[in-house]
Description:
Blueprint: E1 9-18, E2 21-29, H1 32-39, E3 42-49, H2 51-60, E4 65-67, E5 70-71, H3 75-84, E6 96-97, E7 100-101, H4 112-115, H5 123-137, H6 142-149, H7 153-161, H8 168-178, H9 182-186, E8 190-195, E9 198-202
Antiparallel strand pairs: 1-2, 1-3, 2-5, 4-5, 6-7, 8-9
Helix pairs in contact: 6-7, 6-8
Amino acid sequence: MRSSFVGPGVVYYGKGMRDGIPAIKIGISRDAEVRTKFLGVEMLAWHEGTGLDEDAAHRRFAHLDLGNEWFRPEQDLMEYIKGLRRTDAPPVFPARSRMGARRFVEPVDNVEVAARIEHGKTVDARFRARVRVLRKNSGLSQADLGVAVGIDRFAVSGIENGKRTIYMPEAVFICKALGVDLGDMLGDGEPVLVTDKRIEFRPHATSSR
């Protein structure tokens, strides 16, 4: 299956368990250290690359494929990983949209009227609405956000539309990809664009009218 990863990243090789047996995970992420910790695997090696490089690694070891990017840890794969090992930490790449570098298109409170993120919404509904607003305001498609989180675009759509359960690890990775704190996303404050790269959540202003 062709990788849907957009832009530069880190192709990682992690040791973990697949259906109760030792296996190697070959994937790609903008933050490989966080991603491998989330998956519960030990990162053995890494190299910078793109989705094409991830595809090439999958094809190279297709004879060891266990499904879902997991591979049997046989000698040829382990020798390849040994040759890639390095002592420095992998770089972290910022999230990107298909149109280029991550950006804020316009102030948060002007995007779809902040998707009507009004005071009084349930925590669940407020989080889902904010995901949609901040994603669009960051210039990310649902597919882009899905890649950053490790889910597909249909799952992102389901989260935004209230048709899919939000699991806590996903919520954490969504907030990381969008550059906000989970506590703020769940809180009662209103998102306000402070700079072109920073958002603050401030108490709702009380109208005097």
